[in-house]
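Quick review question:
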């Protein structure tokens, strides 16, 4: 009888892509995707621990399975991802939820299939979380469902140890994949008709530092030797290593989107120093200027955190000023969350919740106003959308433009995977609505 799987993912794009790898492993074992969680023979949670609420979310959803597991004891429950990789987390999880069958980590995701076999041969739970990072795997085992977009890992881990961040502890040190393997994967995806490739790493600018034969911008140039139309994106860039080589690669290659996600975190030099970010607000703004000099139309997005230990109103005001000066088109905003084991967790001067809440509200208000202003600039103009889905509820196709703005439009026929020119007739919040205003590239060529 056909067996089915269900995967629940939390966290960043890296995790979303790793869930595609988990799906690949399960499919190779004969499982097919279930239509609903209750119908699955195996449920996998791919967890995140970047902030406390991400963990609570996963704990809540795992706990909610107790009843289902009782009614269906042969169903397997597996928990993996960043959360299980923290010191003591696997034990805590097993204690809290004794019905969990398999616990695995970020470093041994590729052996999930073997862990399932081990579990099927025993009544006991299988807990296997590796402390040490494995080799950067070069084999693409993903089962992708994101056409026309595809994610490609170029490196794993992080060496930066920003003082608030758990990632270096749960993802290990930086390991870059061999450039030849990345090129083979990207070329294979383009051959299959994928139209947008996003290169993933915690700090893509330091790609290759551990190998010494290819830098990040060289990798971009290599990929862009393919001359057909496609979009190339990457995330995330750490400002400390963001420089001219990369800026030139963005300017010189049409395929590289004119959009950079450059997390700033804070606008106060004192806080940036405590965060161990290794740049000042002025240095950050100089990099933004360099980017705009080479790529005048480039859009900039960022991550910002409020309520870091000892942050004063004055520090927070510095963040607000930087947001205005850098002219971000969108920003992801977070309240600092104390992560056990990090340097900041042990700092004096943790900020009370009411103060954090007040600051995040003021920050979000400013960011939203800037985002709306950017969106309003689209009205009556045309922009090119890569159509990626059909929204059944609205009866409209949707996709994003080069700058990441979502656009909706009506079409008589399926447009998924096509570049479409859209005349923007309506702006709602951060998304756009419009009409197709000229033939697609494919039709023009045909
Ligand atoms: N490697 C990326 C960031 C990955 S985490 C970079 O350095 O830019 C994504 C975002 O989560 C971070 O940019 C930061 O803003 C936020 N973040 C990380 N740790 C956090 C914490 N302890 N509390 C709140 N937000 C956090
Ligand atoms: Fe975390 Fe800093 Fe590494 Fe980003 S660069 S993953 S914020 S430690
Ligand atoms: Fe979360 Fe791990 Fe990504 S902690 S943000 S899933 S690297």
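Suggested answer, residue by residue:
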């Amino acid at each position: 009888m056909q067996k089915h799987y269900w995967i629940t993912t939390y966290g960043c794009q890296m995790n979303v892509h790793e869930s595609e790898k988990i799906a690949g492993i399960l499919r190779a074992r004969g499982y097919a995707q279930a239509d609903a969680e209750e119908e699955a023979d195996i449920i996998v949670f791919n967890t995140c621990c970047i902030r406390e609420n991400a963990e609570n979310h996963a704990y809540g959803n795992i706990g909610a399975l107790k009843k289902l597991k009782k009614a269906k004891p042969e169903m397997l429950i597996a928990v993996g991802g960043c959360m299980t990789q923290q010191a003591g987390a696997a034990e805590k999880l097993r204690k809290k939820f004794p019905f969990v069958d398999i616990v695995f980590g970020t470093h041994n995701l590729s052996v999930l299939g073997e862990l399932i076999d081990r579990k099927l041969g025993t009544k006991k739970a299988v807990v296997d979380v590796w402390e040490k990072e494995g080799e950067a795997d070069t084999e693409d085992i993903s089962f992708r469902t994101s056409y026309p977009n595809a994610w490609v890992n170029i490196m794993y881990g992080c060496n930066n140890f920003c003082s608030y961040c758990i990632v270096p502890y749960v993802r290990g040190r930086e390991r870059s994949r061999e450039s030849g393997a990345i090129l083979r994967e990207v070329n294979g995806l383009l051959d299959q008709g994928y139209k947008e490739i996003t290169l993933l790493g915690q700090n893509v600018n330091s790609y290759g530092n551990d190998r010494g034969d290819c830098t990040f911008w060289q990798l971009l140039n290599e990929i862009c030797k393919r001359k057909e139309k496609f979009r190339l994106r990457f995330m995330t860039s750490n400002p400390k290593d963001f420089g001219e080589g990369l800026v030139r690669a963005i300017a010189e290659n049409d395929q590289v989107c004119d959009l950079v996600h450059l997390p700033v975190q804070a606008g106060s030099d004192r806080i940036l120093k405590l965060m161990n970010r290794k740049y000042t607000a002025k240095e950050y703004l100089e990099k933004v200027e360099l980017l705009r000099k080479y790529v005048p139309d480039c859009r900039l997005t960022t991550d910002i955190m409020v309520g870091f230990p000892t942050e004063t109103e004055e520090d927070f005001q510095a963040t607000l000023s930087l947001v205005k000066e850098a002219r971000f088109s969108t920003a992801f905003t977070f309240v600092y969350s104390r992560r056990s084991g990090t340097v900041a967790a042990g700092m004096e001067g943790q900020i009370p919740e009411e103060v954090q809440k007040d600051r995040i509200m003021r920050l979000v208000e400013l960011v939203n106003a800037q985002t709306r202003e950017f969106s309003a600039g689209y009205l009556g103009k045309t922009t090119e959308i890569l159509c990626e889905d059909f929204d059944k509820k609205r009866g409209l196709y949707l996709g994003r433009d080069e700058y990441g703005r979502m656009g909706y439009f009506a079409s008589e026929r399926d447009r998924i995977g096509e570049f479409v020119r859209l005349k923007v007739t309506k702006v709602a919040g951060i998304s756009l609505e419009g009409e197709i205003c000229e033939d697609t590239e494919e039709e023009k060529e045909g």
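Why it works: The pocket of iron/sulfur cluster (ligand 2) is lined by residues 158, 160-162, 165, 167-168, 202-203, 238 (CB under 6 Å). The radius of gyration is 23 Å.
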